[in-house]
Description:
Number of domains: 1
Order of helices and strands: EHEHEHEEEEEHEEHEEEEEEEEHEEEH
Shape: globular
Number of helices: 7
Amino acid sequence: MARTLLIYGESGTYKTANGGQIADYIYETTGKLTYLASADSSWGPMADQIRRGIICPWNLKACTMPLPALMKASRGMWPQRFRDVEAGIMDEKVVMVSIDWSKVGAIIVEGLYMIAELLVNDLISKQRATGEPLSAVFTEDGVNFADTSRGTYKFVQRQTNMYVTNFSALPCRWVVFTGHEGKGRDTSGRMTMGPAVIGQAATDKVAQWFEMTLHHDSYQYTDPKTKAAKFGVRAYFERHPDADITNIFWPAKMSVEPMVKAQVYRLWSSGYVPLLLRENGEYESGVHTLLHVIEEAEGKLARELEVTA
Protein backbone atom coordinates (compact mmCIF):
# COMPACT_ATOMS: atom_id res chain seq x y z
CA MET A 1 0.00 0.00 0.00
CA ALA A 2 1.44 3.35 -1.05
CA ARG A 3 2.33 6.12 1.34
CA THR A 4 0.90 9.47 0.25
CA LEU A 5 2.74 12.77 0.47
CA LEU A 6 1.47 16.22 -0.48
CA ILE A 7 3.96 19.02 -1.14
CA TYR A 8 2.27 22.40 -1.47
CA GLY A 9 3.42 26.00 -1.63
CA GLU A 10 3.52 29.10 -3.76
CA SER A 11 5.15 29.05 -7.21
CA GLY A 12 8.92 28.92 -7.14
CA THR A 13 9.30 26.96 -3.91
CA TYR A 14 11.03 23.96 -5.50
CA LYS A 15 8.07 21.57 -5.45
CA THR A 16 8.78 20.14 -8.89
CA ALA A 17 12.55 20.06 -8.33
CA ASN A 18 12.05 18.07 -5.13
CA GLY A 19 9.85 15.66 -7.05
CA GLY A 20 12.85 15.00 -9.26
CA GLN A 21 15.05 14.46 -6.20
CA ILE A 22 12.52 11.98 -4.81
CA ALA A 23 12.60 10.08 -8.12
CA ASP A 24 16.40 9.88 -7.87
CA TYR A 25 16.06 8.61 -4.29
CA ILE A 26 13.55 5.93 -5.34
CA TYR A 27 15.82 4.79 -8.18
CA GLU A 28 18.94 4.70 -5.99
CA THR A 29 17.24 2.69 -3.23
CA THR A 30 15.02 0.35 -5.29
CA GLY A 31 16.25 0.49 -8.90
CA LYS A 32 12.69 1.38 -9.92
CA LEU A 33 11.26 4.22 -12.01
CA THR A 34 8.85 6.99 -11.10
CA TYR A 35 5.75 7.70 -13.19
CA LEU A 36 4.70 11.33 -13.46
CA ALA A 37 1.16 12.55 -14.26
CA SER A 38 1.19 16.33 -14.58
CA ALA A 39 -1.23 19.13 -15.37
CA ASP A 40 1.19 21.82 -14.17
CA SER A 41 2.72 24.56 -16.30
CA SER A 42 6.14 22.93 -16.66
CA TRP A 43 8.16 19.95 -15.51
CA GLY A 44 11.43 21.66 -16.45
CA PRO A 45 13.01 21.12 -13.00
CA MET A 46 12.60 17.36 -13.60
CA ALA A 47 14.11 17.50 -17.11
CA ASP A 48 17.34 15.78 -16.04
CA GLN A 49 15.51 12.80 -14.52
CA ILE A 50 13.25 12.58 -17.59
CA ARG A 51 16.24 12.57 -19.95
CA ARG A 52 17.90 9.82 -17.91
CA GLY A 53 14.69 7.76 -18.03
CA ILE A 54 14.20 7.77 -14.26
CA ILE A 55 10.92 9.69 -14.61
CA CYS A 56 8.36 8.70 -17.25
CA PRO A 57 6.10 11.75 -17.84
CA TRP A 58 2.45 11.94 -18.85
CA ASN A 59 0.96 15.29 -19.84
CA LEU A 60 -2.62 15.26 -18.57
CA LYS A 61 -3.36 18.56 -20.33
CA ALA A 62 -3.03 16.81 -23.70
CA CYS A 63 -5.54 14.13 -22.71
CA THR A 64 -8.97 14.38 -24.39
CA MET A 65 -10.73 12.49 -21.58
CA PRO A 66 -8.81 13.52 -18.45
CA LEU A 67 -11.30 12.36 -15.81
CA PRO A 68 -11.59 8.68 -16.81
CA ALA A 69 -7.87 8.57 -17.60
CA LEU A 70 -7.02 9.94 -14.17
CA MET A 71 -9.38 7.55 -12.42
CA LYS A 72 -7.85 4.59 -14.27
CA ALA A 73 -4.37 5.80 -13.31
CA SER A 74 -5.42 6.01 -9.65
CA ARG A 75 -6.41 2.33 -9.89
CA GLY A 76 -3.01 1.28 -11.25
CA MET A 77 -3.29 1.76 -15.01
CA TRP A 78 -1.12 3.82 -17.36
CA PRO A 79 -1.08 4.63 -21.11
CA GLN A 80 0.45 1.75 -23.03
CA ARG A 81 2.20 4.00 -25.53
CA PHE A 82 2.99 7.70 -25.99
CA ARG A 83 2.95 9.53 -29.30
CA ASP A 84 5.63 11.89 -27.96
CA VAL A 85 7.54 10.28 -25.10
CA GLU A 86 9.50 13.31 -23.83
CA ALA A 87 6.42 15.56 -24.04
CA GLY A 88 4.34 12.88 -22.31
CA ILE A 89 1.56 12.99 -24.91
CA MET A 90 -0.31 9.70 -25.00
CA ASP A 91 -1.63 8.10 -28.15
CA GLU A 92 -5.39 8.39 -27.66
CA LYS A 93 -5.94 5.21 -29.70
CA VAL A 94 -3.97 3.16 -27.21
CA VAL A 95 -5.71 1.61 -24.22
CA MET A 96 -4.45 2.02 -20.67
CA VAL A 97 -2.88 -1.10 -19.21
CA SER A 98 -1.94 -2.29 -15.73
CA ILE A 99 1.31 -0.86 -14.36
CA ASP A 100 4.21 -3.30 -14.01
CA TRP A 101 5.04 -2.73 -10.35
CA SER A 102 8.30 -4.65 -10.65
CA LYS A 103 9.57 -1.59 -12.57
CA VAL A 104 7.75 1.31 -10.89
CA GLY A 105 8.52 2.42 -7.33
CA ALA A 106 6.64 5.73 -7.08
CA ILE A 107 4.10 7.97 -8.79
CA ILE A 108 4.11 11.76 -8.81
CA VAL A 109 0.81 13.55 -9.43
CA GLU A 110 1.72 17.15 -10.13
CA GLY A 111 -0.62 20.10 -9.84
CA LEU A 112 -3.55 19.26 -7.55
CA TYR A 113 -5.24 22.59 -8.28
CA MET A 114 -4.32 22.56 -11.97
CA ILE A 115 -5.83 19.09 -12.37
CA ALA A 116 -9.03 20.37 -10.78
CA GLU A 117 -9.02 23.31 -13.22
CA LEU A 118 -8.47 20.85 -16.07
CA LEU A 119 -11.47 18.77 -14.99
CA VAL A 120 -13.68 21.86 -14.60
CA ASN A 121 -12.74 23.11 -18.08
CA ASP A 122 -13.36 19.66 -19.55
CA LEU A 123 -16.85 19.58 -18.01
CA ILE A 124 -17.58 23.06 -19.36
CA SER A 125 -16.32 22.32 -22.88
CA LYS A 126 -18.51 19.21 -23.01
CA GLN A 127 -21.44 21.04 -21.38
CA ARG A 128 -21.78 18.39 -18.68
CA ALA A 129 -24.03 19.36 -15.78
CA THR A 130 -23.18 17.78 -12.43
CA GLY A 131 -26.17 18.03 -10.15
CA GLU A 132 -26.98 21.64 -11.04
CA PRO A 133 -27.48 23.11 -14.52
CA LEU A 134 -24.53 24.95 -16.03
CA SER A 135 -24.98 28.64 -16.77
CA ALA A 136 -24.48 30.56 -20.04
CA VAL A 137 -24.81 27.38 -22.12
CA PHE A 138 -24.71 27.86 -25.89
CA THR A 139 -23.03 26.58 -29.05
CA GLU A 140 -21.61 28.89 -31.69
CA ASP A 141 -19.94 27.85 -34.93
CA GLY A 142 -19.70 24.28 -33.67
CA VAL A 143 -17.98 25.25 -30.42
CA ASN A 144 -19.62 24.59 -27.02
CA PHE A 145 -19.64 27.30 -24.34
CA ALA A 146 -20.82 27.22 -20.74
CA ASP A 147 -19.98 28.44 -17.26
CA THR A 148 -19.76 26.59 -13.96
CA SER A 149 -22.37 25.97 -11.31
CA ARG A 150 -21.88 25.11 -7.64
CA GLY A 151 -22.46 21.52 -8.65
CA THR A 152 -19.38 21.67 -10.90
CA TYR A 153 -17.09 22.58 -8.01
CA LYS A 154 -18.67 20.03 -5.67
CA PHE A 155 -18.31 17.29 -8.28
CA VAL A 156 -14.63 18.06 -8.97
CA GLN A 157 -13.85 18.25 -5.24
CA ARG A 158 -15.37 14.81 -4.75
CA GLN A 159 -13.50 13.35 -7.73
CA THR A 160 -10.25 14.85 -6.44
CA ASN A 161 -10.75 13.20 -3.05
CA MET A 162 -11.65 9.93 -4.78
CA TYR A 163 -8.56 9.69 -6.97
CA VAL A 164 -6.28 10.65 -4.06
CA THR A 165 -7.85 7.85 -2.00
CA ASN A 166 -7.48 5.38 -4.88
CA PHE A 167 -3.79 6.19 -5.35
CA SER A 168 -3.11 5.39 -1.69
CA ALA A 169 -4.15 1.77 -2.28
CA LEU A 170 -1.55 1.15 -5.03
CA PRO A 171 1.30 -1.32 -4.33
CA CYS A 172 4.17 1.15 -4.74
CA ARG A 173 6.41 2.88 -2.21
CA TRP A 174 5.21 6.49 -2.47
CA VAL A 175 2.61 8.53 -4.30
CA VAL A 176 3.66 12.18 -4.19
CA PHE A 177 1.23 15.00 -4.97
CA THR A 178 2.14 18.64 -5.49
CA GLY A 179 -0.13 21.66 -5.25
CA HIS A 180 -0.35 25.40 -4.73
CA GLU A 181 -1.22 27.07 -1.45
CA GLY A 182 -4.57 28.80 -1.05
CA LYS A 183 -6.76 30.78 1.29
CA GLY A 184 -10.39 29.96 1.95
CA ARG A 185 -13.25 30.27 4.43
CA ASP A 186 -14.76 27.57 6.60
CA THR A 187 -18.49 27.20 7.24
CA SER A 188 -18.34 29.84 9.97
CA GLY A 189 -16.62 32.32 7.68
CA ARG A 190 -13.25 32.08 9.43
CA MET A 191 -10.21 32.42 7.17
CA THR A 192 -8.33 29.18 6.55
CA MET A 193 -5.07 28.41 4.77
CA GLY A 194 -3.86 25.23 3.15
CA PRO A 195 -3.52 23.37 -0.13
CA ALA A 196 -5.53 25.01 -2.92
CA VAL A 197 -8.39 23.12 -4.56
CA ILE A 198 -11.45 24.18 -6.53
CA GLY A 199 -13.82 25.83 -4.06
CA GLN A 200 -12.60 27.62 -0.96
CA ALA A 201 -14.62 25.57 1.53
CA ALA A 202 -12.31 22.54 1.13
CA THR A 203 -9.03 24.41 1.73
CA ASP A 204 -8.70 23.40 5.39
CA LYS A 205 -9.67 19.76 4.71
CA VAL A 206 -7.29 18.74 1.92
CA ALA A 207 -4.25 18.11 4.16
CA GLN A 208 -6.28 15.39 5.94
CA TRP A 209 -6.36 13.32 2.74
CA PHE A 210 -2.63 12.54 2.90
CA GLU A 211 -0.35 10.58 5.21
CA MET A 212 2.20 13.40 5.09
CA THR A 213 1.76 17.06 4.14
CA LEU A 214 4.67 19.44 3.66
CA HIS A 215 4.30 23.18 3.26
CA HIS A 216 7.06 24.84 1.23
CA ASP A 217 7.38 28.36 2.55
CA SER A 218 9.72 31.04 1.21
CA TYR A 219 11.53 33.59 3.37
CA GLN A 220 13.99 36.43 2.91
CA TYR A 221 17.42 36.62 4.54
CA THR A 222 20.65 38.58 4.24
CA ASP A 223 23.68 36.80 2.79
CA PRO A 224 26.40 37.03 5.48
CA LYS A 225 29.15 37.40 2.87
CA THR A 226 27.65 39.77 0.31
CA LYS A 227 25.04 41.42 2.61
CA ALA A 228 22.59 41.07 -0.29
CA ALA A 229 18.95 40.11 0.25
CA LYS A 230 18.24 36.53 -0.80
CA PHE A 231 15.33 34.12 -0.66
CA GLY A 232 15.27 30.64 0.78
CA VAL A 233 12.67 27.88 1.10
CA ARG A 234 11.73 25.70 4.05
CA ALA A 235 9.75 22.45 3.86
CA TYR A 236 7.62 22.49 7.03
CA PHE A 237 6.55 19.09 8.36
CA GLU A 238 4.63 20.63 11.28
CA ARG A 239 1.91 23.26 11.20
CA HIS A 240 3.26 26.77 11.54
CA PRO A 241 1.87 30.30 11.83
CA ASP A 242 1.46 32.63 8.89
CA ALA A 243 4.07 35.39 8.88
CA ASP A 244 1.52 38.19 8.50
CA ILE A 245 -1.87 37.03 9.84
CA THR A 246 -2.24 36.40 13.57
CA ASN A 247 -3.64 33.05 14.79
CA ILE A 248 -3.72 31.54 11.30
CA PHE A 249 -1.67 28.40 10.71
CA TRP A 250 -0.49 26.59 7.58
CA PRO A 251 -1.21 22.85 7.87
CA ALA A 252 1.60 20.31 7.68
CA LYS A 253 2.03 16.90 9.30
CA MET A 254 3.97 13.65 9.55
CA SER A 255 1.95 10.53 10.31
CA VAL A 256 4.80 8.44 11.69
CA GLU A 257 5.53 6.66 14.95
CA PRO A 258 6.67 8.88 17.86
CA MET A 259 10.15 7.32 17.89
CA VAL A 260 10.55 8.10 14.20
CA LYS A 261 9.30 11.66 14.68
CA ALA A 262 11.79 12.09 17.51
CA GLN A 263 14.61 11.15 15.15
CA VAL A 264 13.40 13.73 12.63
CA TYR A 265 13.30 16.41 15.32
CA ARG A 266 16.82 15.55 16.43
CA LEU A 267 17.95 16.69 12.97
CA TRP A 268 15.45 19.51 12.35
CA SER A 269 14.21 20.80 15.70
CA SER A 270 12.45 23.84 14.19
CA GLY A 271 9.86 21.72 12.36
CA TYR A 272 11.19 22.22 8.83
CA VAL A 273 13.82 20.94 6.42
CA PRO A 274 15.84 23.71 4.75
CA LEU A 275 15.88 23.22 0.98
CA LEU A 276 19.55 23.91 0.32
CA LEU A 277 20.93 23.92 -3.22
CA ARG A 278 24.66 23.62 -3.85
CA GLU A 279 26.44 25.66 -6.54
CA ASN A 280 26.60 22.58 -8.80
CA GLY A 281 22.80 22.31 -8.76
CA GLU A 282 22.62 19.37 -6.35
CA TYR A 283 20.51 19.51 -3.21
CA GLU A 284 22.34 19.40 0.10
CA SER A 285 19.03 18.75 1.82
CA GLY A 286 15.48 18.42 0.57
CA VAL A 287 12.31 16.37 0.81
CA HIS A 288 14.21 13.28 -0.30
CA THR A 289 16.49 13.76 2.73
CA LEU A 290 13.46 13.77 5.02
CA LEU A 291 12.06 10.60 3.41
CA HIS A 292 15.43 8.90 3.80
CA VAL A 293 15.61 9.77 7.51
CA ILE A 294 12.03 8.56 8.08
CA GLU A 295 12.51 5.27 6.26
CA GLU A 296 15.89 4.63 7.87
CA ALA A 297 14.44 5.25 11.34
CA GLU A 298 11.44 3.00 10.58
CA GLY A 299 13.75 0.25 9.35
CA LYS A 300 15.87 0.46 12.50
CA LEU A 301 12.76 0.36 14.68
CA ALA A 302 11.43 -2.70 12.81
CA ARG A 303 14.73 -4.53 13.27
CA GLU A 304 14.75 -3.77 17.01
CA LEU A 305 11.22 -5.10 17.35
CA GLU A 306 12.22 -8.32 15.56
CA VAL A 307 15.06 -8.85 18.01
CA THR A 308 12.80 -8.39 21.06
CA ALA A 309 9.95 -10.49 19.62
